[in-house]
């Protein structure tokens, strides 16, 4: 048996790696406030709504975080978003002037990776909690899958508080039912798992 080299695949991987390294270097040269926005946008996925970014930043600012300066980020949000657009990191959605889309999925990935690895789950979970608490019913319904995905990042760190587990299971069930009513039973079985780690099968009843 011998090795067979595929030069095209090897070269493609090298190019991808080089592009990623260039992006990391570029993003690390931005200001703290610009990187704050990139971290939130990267957590939201390939596209994001500016109003949601503003809601998240305002809530983080009000929480008076000692480790991150959210005051400057909040005060100059529009300016920073425009600056990052001029840098080619994202572009405005032609069908919705309040929505932006990353120019490439690799940019979104590197933006997300600005978050220290040990803080990623908690940071995403906090964004999901803010959206759940602050969005009105119409906005929440439109962004339910995003909220569920973010909140699910906290499953491993959930306390033994039954209410927390039930709330998260209900949220997942709500998202599942939106996909299809036929998905309801399957959702109930799968999503109860995050509750049943406590080995108390009666917790499924409130769902």
Concise synopsis of the structure shown:
The chain is mainly alpha-helical and 207 residues long. The protein has a domain at 7-116: Arc Repressor Mutant, subunit A, CATH 1.10.10.
Descriptive labels:
Arc Repressor Mutant, subunit A, 7% strand, 3 strands, 3-stranded antiparallel β-sheet, 207 residues, single chain, disordered N terminus, mainly alpha
Describe, in plain words, how this protein is organized in 3D.
63% of the residues lie in helices and 7% in strands. The chain has 12 helices and 3 strands, in the order H-H-E-H-H-H-E-E-H-H-H-H-H-H-H. It has a 3-stranded antiparallel sheet with strand order 1-3-2. A hairpin with a 2-residue loop joins strand 2 and strand 3. The protein is globular and about 45 Å long.
Mean pLDDT over all positions? 77
Elements, N to C (H/E) = HHEHHHEEHHHHHHH
Shape: globular
Helical content stands at: 55-70%
Task: Trace the largest sheet across and list its strands.
Answer: 1-3-2
- Largest β sheet strand count, sense and barrel closure: 3 strands, antiparallel
CATH architecture of the domain at 7-116: Orthogonal Bundle
For the secondary structure, the number of strands is 3
What percentage of amino acids are in beta strands?
5-15%
- The CATH C-level class name of the domain at 7-116: Mainly Alpha
Task: Give the low-pLDDT segments.
Answer: 1-15
Derived structural class:
mainly alpha
Span of the ends, CA to CA: 56 Å
Instruction: Could you tell me the CATH topology label of the domain at 7-116.
Output: Arc Repressor Mutant, subunit A
- Computed over alpha carbons, the radius of gyration is 20 Å
Tally of helical runs:
12
């Amino acid at each position: 048996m011998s090795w067979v080299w595929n030069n095209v695949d090897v070269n493609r991987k090298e190019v991808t790696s080089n592009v990623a390294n260039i992006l990391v270097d570029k993003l690390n040269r931005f200001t703290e406030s610009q990187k704050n926005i990139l971290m939130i946008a990267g957590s939201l996925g390939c596209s994001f709504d500016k109003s949601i970014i503003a809601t998240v930043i305002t809530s983080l600012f009000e929480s008076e975080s000692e480790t991150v300066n959210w005051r400057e980020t909040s005060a100059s949000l529009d300016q920073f978003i425009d600056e990052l657009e001029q840098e080619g990191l994202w572009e405005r959605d032609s069908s919705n002037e309040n929505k932006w889309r990353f120019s490439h999925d690799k940019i979104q990935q590197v933006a997300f990776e600005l978050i220290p690895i040990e803080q990623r789950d908690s940071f995403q979970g906090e964004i999901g909690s803010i959206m759940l608490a602050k969005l009105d019913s119409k906005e929440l319904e439109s962004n339910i899958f995003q909220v569920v995905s973010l909140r699910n990042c906290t499953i491993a760190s959930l306390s033994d508080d039954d209410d927390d587990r039930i709330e998260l299971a209900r949220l997942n069930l709500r998202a599942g039912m939106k996909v299809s009513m036929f998905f309801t039973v399957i959702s109930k079985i799968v999503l109860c798992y995050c509750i049943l780690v406590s080995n108390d099968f009666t917790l499924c009843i409130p769902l």
